[in-house]
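#struct-queue
[09:14] JT: dropping the first one here, sequence first, then the structure tokens:
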Amino acid sequence: MTRHSFSARILFAAIALVALSSAPSYAQGEDDDAKLRPAEPDYAVVNLPTTLPLPVHGGNFRLTHRFGENLRNDGFGTQASNLWGIDEGATILFEYRFGIMKHVEAIANRTNFNKVIQLGTKVDVMHQDTSKLLGVSALFSVEGANNYQEDYKPALGATISRSFVDRAAVYAVPVWVHNSAAATGNTRDTFYMGIGGRIAFLPTAYIIAEVTPRLAGYAPGDAEYAFGVEKRIGGHVFSLVFANTFGTSYGQLATGGFPHSLYMGFNLARKFF
């Protein structure tokens, strides 16, 4: 059996397992997955996942760019002449997620950073409401470089959220990534704890920030961090962001950010439900 086939079977088995697992029951109207959650407008902070639910047969498309100008190394004149990185090319991600059943999402994305394809699932175990203080989602994925042909990295994690009066939300995202050092020819793992949040300074505008310190295992470079401003307009969410890495997948976040680096970019998301 090839590594490609083995990793695909792991992914499909995990999706089947979580899809067949019994999810908590909710009273009618108490857990409407399509309702507006002002403190949680998107499925990501910058790179870290949130607990925002996706309705059954609903979809969400996400496009990200990270431009190539290192804003910490180049002078203002160079940055301005390159339009703060827009002239330097971009690392781009396309992602689509689909609600395959109540509280279960299938997620696929591809980034041109090492041509990584990530396939995974998110299961909403619990949503914050009048009787529950936290939201909790389980995460599983397998990513592979060179268009899912090598350097497979299974990841298992969770997102734990807490919202405050529809104006702010904070997240803790523990993630374990197997084979995080695949690019070096070694088999090592990484465990990190992503911390992120957003706060509304206008009814539909937010400040967003996150950091992912590695707590155990393979941990090159600096911890990934990112921040920015975000605007929600109907089913669209646009974020102008700054990050110390081009990485967006769980495995790429495990390898951290580039020392003395900062890149401008954006996230654009559109809901379909």
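[09:21] JT: and here's the second one, same format:
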Amino acid sequence: MAPPVPTAQIDEAILPWARAWQGLKGKRVLLTGGTGTVGSWLLELYCRANALWDLGSRIQVLSRDPEAFHAKCPHLAADPAVTFLRGDIRTFGPSAGPFGPSAGPFDLVIHGANDASGAASYTDLLGHLDTLVLGTRHLLERALEAKAQRVLLLSSGAVYGPQPPDLERIPETHPGAPDPMNPGTRYAQGKRMSEHLCMVFRHQFGLDAVIARGFALVGPHLPLDTHLALGNFIRDALAGRPVEVLGDGTPWRSYLYASEYAMACWLILLSGQPGRAYNVGSPEGIRLGDLARMVAGMRGLPVVIRQEAREGVPAERYLPSVRRMEEELGFRSRIDLINSIRRTMDWYKM
């Protein structure tokens, strides 16, 4: 069972945006992908803001396994504004069930269902792609039926493909793309197609849609046993063993604290320009080897880097430009990386 996130951390994220949260007053929200890391944080902020400002909003969470989320986050599942609908993003409908009367009506939609880290995403390649693409189309069709006012798609910086070595940070206008000949890029391809579907529905049917292109985050609810490097570093440190880097430690990454990440997504939904994509992440880059040393140093542990850096090969980069978020929405990160990691480790020790 996951402990609640400290209220002070939620308040520091939502209080500066009290006016923006008024856009949820009386609104009915449908959330898909609400039981993962980002979804859990969206609910953490939503439940607090809804109660704090008496917004009278209601949120319905589509999940294939509501019981698992009830066991994992009972403090969120028990909130009176939260109900669950059992179903698959590709097929869900308005039928009654034990976790909510229907999938509508609803005013706002946040679509984050993708199962990017689940075991099936590595074995059932076509099923994973179907979840992303067919699931998005099905959701958009349901949003039209419900006369939803706006859809927020939780996309990914993966849509840009490999970052060129001479590009310091990726702007939303970058025309790069993942290799369509590589089945391993299906997540990125699916997110690209999902974005395209949102814009097609916007232009053909007038459905308002905005895009949040997420980069890496850190914070409570971050899984410690998947492909995520920082999660694995934190796992090693908490276990008191050497922090292991499976690669050569040269790639560049950046990490936004999860409360700020979730607030940025809510802000895009409530205040983003129609038909616009926004990068969500931190612009402050760090090499994975240095990141491992930062985590290890907090516990006095050694670092093991498994591979040697290849001479003459430019370091891989995955860093966003967040100027659009800063200039159009006034959003800036205030929590530095070392404190973000410390908070994450403290939460896992509760």
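[09:30] RK: nice, looked through the second one.
[09:31] RK: The mean pLDDT is 93.
[09:31] JT: good to know. The longest strand covers residues 150-156.
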